[in-house]
# Entry
Amino acid sequence: MARNRREVDEVDKKVKLNKESWQEVLGMLKFIRPYRTHFFAGLLFIVLSALTTLSFPYLLKKLIDSADALSKGQDVIKPNSIALAMIGVLILQMLFSYGRVYFFAYAGENSLADLRKEVYNRMIQLPMDFFSKRRVGELSSRLSADLSQIQDALTLMLAEILRGILTLVVGIGLIFYISPKLTLVMLSVVPVIVVIAVLFGRKIRKLSREAQDQLADSNIVVQETLQGITNVKAFSNEWFEIGRYENSLKKVVSLAIRNGKVRGLFISFLLFSLFGTIVFVVWYGVGLMQEGHLSFGDLTAFVIYTTFVGGSMAGFADLYSQLQKTIGATQRVREIMKEPGENVMVVREPLQEKYKLKGRVQFDNVSFSYPSRSEIQVLKNVDLVAQPGEQIALVGPSGAGKSTMVAMLLHFYNPDKGKILYDGMNGLEMPLSQLRQQMAFVPQDVMLFGGTIKENIAYGNPDATDEQIREAARKANAHDFITGFPEGYETIVGERGIKLSGGQRQRIAIARAILKDPVILILDEATSSLDSASEQLVQEALENLMKNRTSFVIAHRLSTVRNADKIYVLDKGQIVESGTHQELMDIDEGLYKSLSKLQFASVVEE
# Structure
């Protein structure tokens, strides 16, 4: 009894999933709505194209029968007239085919572009936790392969289904009109072919899905290797990455060959069945001709219509397979669309007066664990106050929680407990775009976009003039090396800034922050990649930039934060010490003093 109940529940679950899947596919039709005029024009041309195609065998029958009648001296429509009518039908078919392709291309490409924009807009608004759980290659696949599959379903596949149904219905009607007896003979054979074709289709669909998944894994290997090409070459691991990719490709090839074997059997079976059916129909039709129940023109038209009907039936199996792929692609895209996004602007908006900050920041009893490892508490009851214009340094051993505090300042993540206040306002109650517009972040590991140096600096303020961009570069000690390039500020930095040195990338990131002119500045060891001469110049620029701004500085080299207004020392997610440099150095056995001694000793050894 319990087993039967479980089986019923599983069936209900499958029915519910299938219903939801179809609803999701149909929900994608909304993207065609703005282009419905072109879409319905395409549907009309499909109908007209199918009708002209189906009329051709009928005219061919008339042509053959008229020739036969003339040979017997009967008065009928002359073959020349019928031949001209057939040429006219071919011209109409050509025009209708052109219109069908054009209108569907217009509706399809525009709807796909709208769909891509919506998915991209949704994706870019998702919180950092979403991206921490997914690979870049996987997300890129959503915008390319999955959306293209959906677009094919919205236009081309729908068109083929309509054409197939029309051909099937009209074709069966016409062959039944020509010879009911021969039609019943033909239809008795076709269902067996269709059933076997569906079984083959299921096997092919399963293998195709496995091959697609494995190919996606291969693409991820390529993307990860290229993104980390510096590490690959630094560790001399080209051989390892080549081996990893080759192993992945071997699995792709193996699945593709298995798929090819099944498809080969399937195609061989279809060809044998199709031509076997035609042979059988012709053999039976010849008998009907000898009995005087059928003319040669009727038999010719019947065979052609039978080919159309059989092709449509065989095509439905492939369309069903494509539709299953579309449902899978739709489900993956809808997963992104259903994810809750951040409260960020999707169109540029000015800073509102009520959200303008003076720079006071407070961590009020903040505790936090990353969602992916909720059992590990990264921050524990953190209390911190920064007054407007103060320079706050965060120091401590690796893994103490410094970078997490920076991520929470930017509200990449929200506190599990406690709150972060900006001028007394809870950060959760402020639009994130309004908050982040007033902050600038210079990370330790700088990532530049693949455009020009000018574009990367201007990212801090897209409305900045060329002179403002140059002035920001001067303050960051970047102007001299930029003008040293032949293209100057128009120099292409390459993927992730690979054409520049680490120090150069860091100075461009600092210039970007300077150009933004933020209220709250966040520096994650921003001078770590600079040589001694550049570090001194940039440090002076940063000190000038930090004046009258609330600044949070993550420092591994304690010598860079000796002049900070307040230094907070973190250890295992807790603030264990706080004060000025001198106050912390006065604490016997203090962590800050211990770290200072270790760094001083290492400098002396060097």
In short: The beta strands are 361-368, 379-386, 391-395, 417-422, 425-426, 439-442, 520-524, 550-554, 566-571, 574-579. The chain has two domains: 2-338, 353-437+552-606.
